[in-house]
Amino acid sequence: MRVMALVALAVFCLDQLSKVVIVHLMALDDVRSIDVLPPYLNFRMAWNRGINFGLFSSHSEIVRWGFVVLALAIVGWVIWWVRREPEGLWLRISAGLLVGGALGNVIDRVIYGAVADFLNMSCCGWENPSSFNVADIAIFAGALGLILFTGRSGARDAADKSG
């Protein structure tokens, strides 16, 4: 559990620090766009009131707080679930990524009413219209890791017993 908590704390802090520096200190909220390494990396301000890519976006307070409750429920479930799984370093790291990222976006919704997205990456003639943040990357990587690393030790144990 300690690994999961440390990874979650690191992701949460990195996410919030990146938002303070880029959105507030670099004033991205005012200037709206900063080219860093065009077209590969740019900062484009977007206040996401929905889920990924603005899906289910709404200015309704019920939707905002519904997303907060849903994210906290998922975080609670992931923590409960991972505690019951057999030891696995990559599983714990993946859970920490997901939990830290989810909590980073929850804080945004509570403080700002929306998630602060600012990373924009394009390549090879394709211009990405969407922005994302450090928390989004961690959530995606964590969810993928949970899929890849769940039940692996159990499957190995079963194979060892049968053969």
Describe this structure as you would to a colleague.
This protein has 163 residues and is mainly alpha-helical. It has one domain. Helices cover 63% and strands 12% of the residues. It contains 6 helices and 3 strands; from the N terminus they run ααββααβαα. The protein has a 3-stranded antiparallel β-sheet. Strand 1 (33-37) and strand 2 form a beta hairpin. Helix 4 runs antiparallel to helix 5 (134-149). The longest helix is centred in the first third of the chain and has 24 residues, at 2-25. The two termini are 32 Å apart.
Descriptors:
163 residues, mainly alpha, three-stranded antiparallel β-sheet, 6 helices, 3 strands, globular, disordered C terminus
At a glance:
With 163 residues, this protein is mainly α. It has six helices and three strands.
